[in-house]
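Cross-check.
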Amino acid sequence: MNGMASDRELELEAKLNRLEESYIQLQQSFANLEKAVRQRDPLKKEVLKRFQKKRKEVVKGKIAELLTGRSMELAELKDLIVDGLAYCSKASFYRYIDEMKAKGLLDMLEMEGKLTVALQAKVMV
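Predicted model, tokenized:
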């Protein structure tokens, strides 16, 4: 029985050694993957960085584009920008709407109990 225990111990020790080798290989693979992710295409990183900075203006531009020549219910516009296109969060959308109203770019009207938004008509002098 003592001989069987040592055979079992040797078998377990061999398995443990294989597991340790596999673990070391996985650690090395993970380290290589992390390094590759950190060394992404620098141009892509720069473009994404610039886009993130200009995101607000892109979303406001899309709002203006959707309202060009027509009015729209605020809820419908929110559904398009936030839910449909996933341009920004709901909170950011309403913040952008407030900013555009404050700059005089949007008119808000209540029609049939629903809030409607339209681009401010510009007076040409």
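The helical segments are 2-38, 42-67, 74-84, 90-102. Residues 1-39 form one domain. Passed to J.P. for a second look.
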